[in-house]
Design a protein that fits this description.
heterotrimer; A alpha+beta (381); B alpha+beta (158); C mainly alpha (530); A: 381 residues; alpha+beta; Helix Hairpins; Immunoglobulin-like; Cytochrome Bc1 Complex, Chain D, domain 2; five-stranded mixed sheet; elongated; B: 158 residues; PH-domain like; 2 domains; five-stranded antiparallel sheet; 3 helices; 8 strands; 39% helix
Chain lengths: 381, 158, 530
């Protein structure tokens, strides 16, 4: 009976060690088992450090667990072992205090080097400011004056609704895709500043080798240097409310020339958007734009059909504010926020807000059915 | 703890019981002082950074700890003295002086060690006489109470 | 104790009904209530984790709203930490400390009663938030502002529940300190105390030092929300990160508050079933004390990613790594206790060995995360979820369950069903590893924690993890059955219960205390700790 039990124990132990070993052996082949090597000097350094510590603790584990198993097997009563009565040994105790200290020092040296390297944020060639919002990211290219929001892509957003009936397996890059990618040049030292507008978020792209909190009212300084072009995906890593799981990050690293083209495109788009705020829009234009703006900015809380979430987020269907023929209260609310609702004055431009409002006031059986022009919003700012 | 205070040339037999005081008051105060220092340093550290509301909680807590240590030390200072004379048994109970004195008739006195209905509660040692009873040695642990019962029975037999 | 009166002769009547429990000041009654309460909360918190694992069983949202999912994550942690682990530790302390040190009861029995009854009240406050406007707390058990301030009507309930839980633990800690200081039996010097008592003394000191920090922290959240202060509001000149410093200044010692009693329990179990004295008693005491001391200098390793100055990051990295040394000493001492012993493997010993193996795994991943540059990758992923669950479930909970099997015959007078106990151990051990080991992989591969839905490459592992979770949850019902069966009857336990048992608690009858002793207990080195 006891032999059986020990076979069981040994079996369990070998399963553990196999898991450890398989983790190391398959590390390079299977990307859901281990840390990514990444594409920056930092991430490669971190990966090397990670593997080094993993080997050390695995080795310690193998030694310690073998000794324990050997002892469990040989020093058992059923095998006729007689207990000795020693209860201390100064030399042994010194040994197992000193050896761990030596191992720790060996581990601390490369770790210190890596940390010092990672904190060198100086002499960057360009700067991107990342601002976390509930629940999307805003990117400001401080040198080029480009600025845009990046939210969960539309198809993921539809599939992730509760009981949407859409199989996530059929959605490409489910929960890992966005509407606007962050485009960055390769082989460039880029300074990345993180901050937030409402609560604490955390900007994390594993392939870059670090994550950093985005804290309202504070700016954190980081840097990266991407060596290979490609698309790198990440996520918010700090619980930031209801849709924390649904604000991915997509970095597209491109050669410098391609990046320059992209910058020009973006500048043109921004100019067009600015111009749009000053002209008169037709109702159809506003409704079409408003549907998109609503989906990316409002639907997370007020839900796709404006029904809200009971007890948390008010419904827009039949809402007194939405159905008030005088739109000024609604405009003020959207601009300045209320309770959990963020102030949208820095998030959306006048055209976006007027479009979203027109959409809300004309949908789901709401009765006003009027048109709000960007100039109406502008007047209230 | 039991002390037999009976003097050889005295007819009265005297037993004193008191709880075991495992630590002198000075030592308790010393450790209390050390704990307080650590807690106050932490609270003051946060206070100096502008996080003022930790200090009052630390103060409340240390006050509670001090009061509890004082009460438990005071309680462990209690003494019960049982003097058995020819005709009477006198029981004095008090901390520094005899705060309560009971007398019972020796002739009818009985020592009863009563176990509780469920033997995970402590037993009670009762001095009984004329249908009245007095519990003594409530603060003793089980073994000490057993010993006290045996001692008292021995004395009363004589 | 001083009120003594001459009164009419009457016999001690059996107290009946709820009153026996409601007003009991007996340390065994209160210890039992603590343990039963902890078991109930273990299943309440467990049910929440089942909701979490059901939602994560496959990608996509099937059962709950993300907001409710966040509430589950948050309240699961609060219930398990403050409702299951701490009361279980205090319950064991209440039961065993007076017996182990030869005291008649706890120093302040009425306060003991009160500190227990605060708990159900506090949890009623906390759990009632599920029915309020805005729902239950959903910002994580760490209550980071500004997110926690978005909570609706439930917010003050959260704060006051935390206050009451703190008051309850403080009262427990104060009582234990007073008991051990004043009420040890003659000859029971500090260096003869059983290690379980030592770990609890140190735990009590940690509670005294850490609790006011939490109480002050949550109070400042409350004033920030309702009274216009700006301790943690950057717009008003405050600093949201300082709350994290405050929280973890409490939170890291709290980790040791949870784990040390469990260390104490296995320090009692391993010598008993190795039939050999505990190896290095003195170094065990010093190692425990230095772990407790160091725990006040490592808090910021929970928040390496907030962006600290380089010097701070280096300091907290070195301090964190140094904790591995005393922790290693403890593990090695336990191994040396087993070495050349004469071991048998009853259920308590199996659980203790389980702690040794699996707590070590949690220790290894802990060491990995202490390395700051690498922690930038590990932080807030499932790797950390795997780490602290390895420490808490097979580290702390297995220790507590081992202690329950160890002392159950002493408490009830009956032996438990050894076969079922062993079955419980093997089912728990296998399922707990299926549950938590793969979390290392998905964490490293990039799955953040506290998300209700995930991208599809993590689907297979999450599937396996959920199955392990359900199996672990079901296995725990076996514990309830074994305990009920043991309370209702079974083979009578001897006084010593276990062949290798030493110490005051084993010289009393099972269940304690009534027996006709003719000699007082003498505490000598041979019986004090073994």
């Amino acid at each position: 009976m006891f032999v059986n039990k020990f076979k069981q124990i040994m079996f369990a132990i070998s399963v553990f060690s196999l898991m450890f070993i398989s983790e190391m052996a398959l590390a390079d082949y299977m990307n859901v088992l281990n840390l990514t090597k990444g594409v920056t000097p930092t991430s490669k350094m971190v990966y090397g450090l990670h593997m080094q510590i993993l080997y050390i603790v695995t080795a310690i584990g193998v030694v310690v667990f073998s000794v324990m198993c050997w002892s469990i097997y040989h020093h058992r009563k059923s095998k006729g072992a007689v207990a000795e009565q020693f209860h201390h040994s100064t030399s042994a105790e010194i040994t197992w205090t000193v050896i761990p200290i030596i191992i720790l020092v060996v581990m601390a040296i490369p770790a210190t080097k890596a940390l010092v390297f990672m904190e060198q944020t100086g002499d960057a060639e360009m700067t991107v400011k990342v601002t976390g919002y509930q629940w999307k990211w805003k990117y400001d290219y401080l040198d080029e004056g480009i600025s845009f929001f990046s939210s969960l892509s539309q198809d993921s957003n539809e599939a992730r609704q509760r009981n949407s009936g859409i199989d996530p397996e059929t959605v490409e890059n489910y929960l890992m895709d966005v509407d606007n990618r962050v485009v960055l040049p390769i082989n460039t030292k880029i300074r990345i500043l993180t901050t937030a507008a409402d609560v604490i978020h955390d900007w994390w792209v594993p392939a870059l080798g670090w994550k950093r909190d985005a804290i309202p009212g504070f700016i954190n300084d980081n840097w990266t240097y991407i060596e290979e072009p490609g698309v790198y995906r990440g996520k918010c890593a700090e619980l930031c409310g209801r849709d924390h799981g649904f604000m991915p990050i997509v970095v597209e690293a491109v050669p410098k020339a391609e990046y320059a083209v992209w910058v020009e495109e973006q500048k043109a788009i921004q100019l067009a958007a600015a111009a749009g705020a000053d002209r008169e829009w037709t109702k159809d234009e506003l409704l079409e734009k408003g549907k998109d703006v609503y989906a990316t900015n409002c639907a997370a809380c007020h839900m796709a059909e404006g029904q809200g979430v009971e007890g948390l987020f008010p419904a827009l269907v039949g809402s007194a504010i939405v159905n008030n023929p005088d739109a000024s209260e609604m405009i003020m609310l959207i601009l300045n926020g209320k309770n959990m609702m963020p102030a949208f004055k820095d998030i959306l431009n006048d055209a976006d807000i007027s479009a979203a409002m027109t959409h809300e006031r004309n949908s789901w059986g709401n009765t006003v059915k009027d048109v709000i022009q960007p100039s109406d919003v502008k007047a209230m700012r | 703890m039991l002390f037999n205070l009976t003097n050889e040339n005295n007819l009265e037999k005297t037993i004193m019981v008191m709880p075991n005081r495992a630590m002198p008051w000075q030592q308790i105060m010393l450790i209390y002082f050390l704990i307080s220092t650590v807690t106050i340093i932490i609270a003051l550290g946060f206070f100096s950074q502008g996080f003022t509301l930790i200090l009052p909680f630390a103060g409340l807590e240390l006050t509670a700890l001090g009061v509890v240590l004082y009460i438990s030390a005071w309680r462990s200072n209690i003494k019960e003295v049982v003097c058995v004379a020819d005709d009477k048994i006198r029981i004095e109970i008090g901390h520094n002086t005899a705060e309560k004195v009971f007398e019972i008739d020796r002739t009818w006195a009985q020592v009863v060690l009563e176990r509780s209905w469920n033997n995970w509660y402590p037993s009670r040692l009762l001095l009984r006489s004329h249908g009245r009873q007095l519990e003594i040695g409530k603060f003793l642990n089980e073994q000490e109470r057993q010993r006290l019962a045996i001692e008292l029975k021995k004395i009363l037999k004589k | 104790m001083s009120e003594a009166v001459l009164h009419d002769d009457h016999h001690d009547h059996k107290p009946t009904g709820i009153g026996r429990w409601l007003f009991s000041t007996n340390h065994k009654d209160i210890g039992t209530m603590y343990l039963v309460f902890a078991l109930i909360m273990f299943f309440v918190g467990g049910a929440m984790s089942m909701v979490i694992r059901a939602e994560l069983f496959q990608p996509g949202l099937q059962y709950v709203d993300p907001q409710f999912y966040n509430s589950m994550v948050t309240v699961h942690a609060l219930v398990m930490i403050f409702g299951a682990l701490m009361p279980a530790g205090v319950g064991l302390a209440n039961w065993m400390i007076p017996i182990m040190i030869g005291a008649p009861d706890m120093a302040l029995p009425r306060m003991n009663n009160m500190s227990f009854w605060i708990l159900p009240f506090a949890f009623t406050l906390l759990l009632s938030t599920f029915f309020m406007q805005g729902g239950a707390p959903a910002g994580g058990w760490t209550m980071y502002p500004p997110l926690v301030l978005q909570l609706g009507d439930g917010f003050p309930y959260l704060v006051f529940a935390v206050h009451f839980l703190g008051i309850s633990s403080i009262m427990g800690a104060i009582n234990i300190i007073a008991t051990v200081f004043n009420m040890r039996a003659p000859g029971m010097t500090f260096m003869r105390l059983p290690l379980f008592v030592w770990t609890w003394i140190i735990t009590a000191f940690l509670l005294i030092a850490a609790m006011p920090v939490l109480a002050g922290g949550v109070t400042m959240l409350l004033t920030d929300k309702y009274f216009g202060t700006a301790f943690f509001d950057a717009a008003g000149g405050g600093d949201p990160v300082m709350f994290q410093h405050i929280f973890w200044f409490f939170g890291h010692p709290e980790v040791y508050i949870l784990v040390l009693p469990s260390f104490g329990v296995i320090s009692q179990i391993i010598p008993t079933f190795s039939r050999k004295p505990l190896f290095g008693y003195t170094s065990m005491v010093y190692a425990t004390a230095s772990i407790a001391f160091l725990s006040f200098f490592v808090w910021a390793h929970h928040m390496f990613t907030v962006g600290m100055p380089l010097a701070g990051e280096l300091f907290f990295m070195y301090a964190t790594m140094s904790i591995a040394v005393p922790t290693g000493v403890k593990i090695f001492n336990w191994m040396a206790t087993m070495w050349r012993g004469s071991m048998t493997f009853e259920t308590p010993m199996l659980f203790a060995i389980g702690v040794l193996f699996m707590f070590s795994i949690g220790g290894f991943s802990g060491l990995m995360m202490g390395i700051t540059p690498v922690d930038f990758q590990y932080h807030d992923t499932y790797f950390i979820v795997a780490h602290f669950h390895y420490v808490i479930v097979p580290g702390i909970i297995f220790g507590i369950i081992g202690g329950i099997y160890f002392w159950l015959p002493k408490w009830t007078g009956n032996m438990y069903d050894e076969k079922l106990g062993k079955l419980h151990f093997w089912l728990s051990t296998i399922s707990v590893n299926v549950l938590f080991f793969p979390m290392h992989f998905i964490g490293l591969a990039g799955m953040p924690r506290r998300i209700p839905d995930y991208s599809v490459q993590f689907a297979d592992w999450n599937n396996i993890i959920s199955i392990g979770g359900f199996a672990f949850g079901l296995s725990q019902l076996l514990l309830v059955w074994v305990v009920i069966k043991c309370v209702r009857g079974g083979e009578k336990a001897t006084d010593q219960v276990w062949e290798g048992a030493h110490g005051l608690e084993w010289t009393l009858s099972s269940p304690p205390p009534f027996h006709s002793f003719t000699t007082p207990p003498k505490v000598t080195d041979a019986t004090a700790h073994s």
